[in-house]
Amino acid sequence: MWRSEVRHTMTLLLGALAAAIFTLAAPARAQGAARAFSVYLDCSDFYCDPDFYRTDITFVDHVRERTAADVHVLITHQQTGGGGRLYTLAFYGQHRFDGVNDTLSVTTGQGATEDEQRQALSRTIKLGLARYLARTPDATRATLSVAAAADTGKKAPTRDPWKAWVFRVGANINASRERDFKSDYIYGSLNASRLTDQWKTNIRVNENYNGQAFRIGQDRVASVRRDYGGAVQQVKTIAKRWAAGIVAGAGSSTFLNEHLVATVAPAVEFNAYPYSEYTRRALILQYRVGGRYLLYDDTTVYFKTSETRPLESLTLSLLQKQKWGSLELDVNGYHYLDDITQSRLTYYLEADVRLYKGLSLNLFGNYIVMHDQIYLAKGDLTRDQVLLRRSQLASPYNAFVFAGLNYTFGSVFNNIVNPRFSNAMSEF
After folding, report:
1. Which letter, b or e, does each residue of 262-288 get, where b requires 16 or more Cβ atoms within 10 Å of its Cβ?
2. Cα maximum dimension of the chain
3. Beta bridge mates, 103
4. Cα separation values, 227 from 165, 191, 224, 305, 413, Å
5. Minimal CA–CA distance to 328: which of 299, 301, 354, 363?
């Protein structure tokens, strides 16, 4: 009897609590101030902290669906020669602002913090929205001010002591331990780059170590994979759509039975669009021809311990970042000139397409047709080598695909930021 009374009491309390929450929340929604127009911020190819912009840009309605917005702001970025970022902001007017478009850009310096980057973006977004605000009745309440320039008493340096060179050094270590299992992953890299309007130089050196050990009863099984690599790229600008260069690289891989692989290949590249539009669209055709030297750890299935081979490759790349989403499609093929049957053809696709309002399609995948496995070691692999993926297996193809659909519906308004209990659901 008392249990039913407790349940009845709890039901009444929960009902009263829900009614109180609804009653208190309703006036807050009704008292929201009218805003000048609606905006959709589109920066899906990188994290741009949408909560910050909702709280910093408060004179507009933020919506979560691009077709519902009066202004669609598409933000893309690319790295600058000094190690900073160049952000390009395309403003597309819709509905009452149809046909009113604009493009602005802002650059953040090398080592800029996340807050410095988002502050620079927010300031530029506000400047871009000013022309739309000027076309609304709310323009009579708007003001514009320019802060006085800081006088440091110093002139900007006229010479660059680094001669436009930028260096990056990085290292990662991951370790995991259990009683009968351990895993270690170590990665290190060194990059040097120099970018000018006419020349582009990239130098890269990296190392990977991946070790695992298992204990099954009294047996212990270990697996170690090591990879070393480096590359040098020198590119010369020829015209708005043309470039030429040379690429050289060397590497070593226990997984591929390659003690040393060295490749040198001059290349030429054509872009159907000017390179200045690269953050929005590109259609690139690149051709390479050169030679490759291979030195193997073990004798290959072709009874080779080393060999030198001429090769050529052709790559077609399509890049699009538009209002409807983003698309990257690459097709790359190469073959050895002395035996064109020994070849590889790679298809790569990555897409994020908005099909209709809140419905979007995500695709990622690649498919590789492999007829170039001349590096495979002669002889049979052991059971441990196969199960632990210590060595590459013979295969005519390699495929991976990911596909997903996302549908969001309900209110399009996206102004409110409420971080309370943000991690509460992760505890269950």
Report:
1. ebebebebebeeeeeebbbbbebebeb
2. 91
3. 90
4. 27, 17, 10, 19, 50
5. 363
Nearest Cα neighbor of 370 from 350, 399, 390 is 399
For residue range 173-203, what is the model confidence (pLDDT) as tens digits? 999 999 989 999 999 999 999 988 899 999 9
Asked whether the predicted pLDDT for residue 21 surpasses 50, the reply is no
Rounded Cα distance between 334 and 370, Å, is 10
Per-domain residue ranges of the chain: 38-138
Interval 354-411: pLDDT, tens: 888 778 899 999 999 999 999 988 888 777 777 777 788 889 999 999 999 988 788 7
Phi-psi region of 131 (alpha: psi -120 to 50; beta: other; left: phi over 0): alpha
CATH of domain 38-138: 3.30.160
Distance in angstroms between the alpha carbons of the first and the last residue of the chain: 32
- Provide φ and ψ at 372, rounded to 5°: -125, 25
Q: Are the C-beta atoms of residues 249 and 231 closer than 8 Å to each other?
A: yes
What is the pTM (predicted TM-score) of this model? 0.73
Both tokens of 170, joined, read: 């990085």
Question: Quick one: the chain helix, strand, coil %, rounded to 5?
Answer: 20, 50, 30
Counting other chains too, the contacts that 25-28 makes at CB distance below 8 Å and 24 or more residues apart are none
